[in-house]
């Protein structure tokens, strides 16, 4: 069992499924109200690929399936398939709030981790990497699944709001190398549906809330990690 850090800044996070018509309508409403993410390409998008980890007991998977409110997930994340920025992240959920801690790693460190050499994380001066190092040795934290999708993101300083549309989610089966140029990917959800995520601090401004009209949308219950783990399931309990 991992325990959340109570000293972190926690934010609200709401997730919904939207179809293409809902996506297009909401996006058109948001564009005059919010700023597009500075990292976006000319199409207003960027690619996110993450390698999720879990321990010998599949704690992250079981806790999500069991509805445990306070839980964490570990992942390595890259953008646009490049190795210029590689983050090892810890995403923390406490009740209905989320927080994220991250630390940069080098491509050389990533390559060693993929080989099973976790000594590169034995860095007491970097608490997150040191925590992951101990988890790798004590509870056998190991790579489990790749999650890949296209993100379209909008931000607002008022309320520190971040709204994202995650599209075309895929996963890599039986391969944990996020830099493999021959990585075989399969669709994780029907491409007719996108995942709308709304993150904010203390409040969501009324004009953004009006543009979103969340009341008519379908809440998403499964995480991207769970969705992709189920596609590569080896045991019947992973369907529960």
UniProtKB/TrEMBL annotation:
<feature type="domain" description="VTC">
    <location>
        <begin position="11"/>
        <end position="229"/>
    </location>
</feature>
<dbReference type="InterPro" id="IPR042267">
    <property type="entry name" value="VTC_sf"/>
</dbReference>
<protein>
    <submittedName>
        <fullName>Polyphosphate polymerase domain-containing protein</fullName>
    </submittedName>
</protein>
<dbReference type="Pfam" id="PF09359">
    <property type="entry name" value="VTC"/>
</dbReference>
<dbReference type="InterPro" id="IPR018966">
    <property type="entry name" value="VTC_domain"/>
</dbReference>
């Amino acid at each position: 069992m991992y325990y959340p850090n109570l000293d972190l800044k926690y934010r609200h996070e709401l997730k919904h499924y939207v179809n293409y018509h809902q996506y297009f309508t909401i996006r058109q409403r948001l564009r005059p109200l919010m700023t597009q993410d500075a990292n976006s390409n000319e199409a207003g998008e960027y690619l996110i690929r993450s390698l999720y980890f879990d321990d010998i007991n599949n704690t992250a998977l079981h806790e999500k399936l069991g509805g445990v409110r306070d839980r964490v997930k570990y992942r390595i994340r890259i953008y646009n398939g490049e190795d210029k920025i590689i983050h090892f992240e810890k995403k923390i959920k406490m009740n209905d709030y989320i927080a994220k801690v991250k630390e940069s790693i080098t491509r050389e460190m990533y390559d060693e981790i993929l080989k099973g050499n976790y000594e590169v994380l034995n860095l007491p001066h970097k608490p997150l990497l040191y925590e992951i190092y101990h988890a790798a040795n004590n509870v056998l934290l190991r790579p489990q699944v790749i999650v890949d999708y296209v993100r379209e993101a909008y931000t607002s300083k008022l309320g520190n709001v971040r709204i994202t549309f995650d599209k075309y989610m895929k996963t890599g089966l039986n391969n944990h190398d996020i830099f493999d140029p021959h990585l075989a990917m399969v669709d994780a959800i029907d491409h007719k549906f996108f995942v709308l995520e709304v993150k904010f601090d203390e409040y969501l401004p009324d004009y953004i809330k009006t543009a979103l009209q969340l009341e008519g949308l379908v809440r998403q219950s499964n995480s991207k990690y769970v969705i992709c783990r189920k596609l590569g399931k080896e045991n019947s309990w992973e369907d529960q």
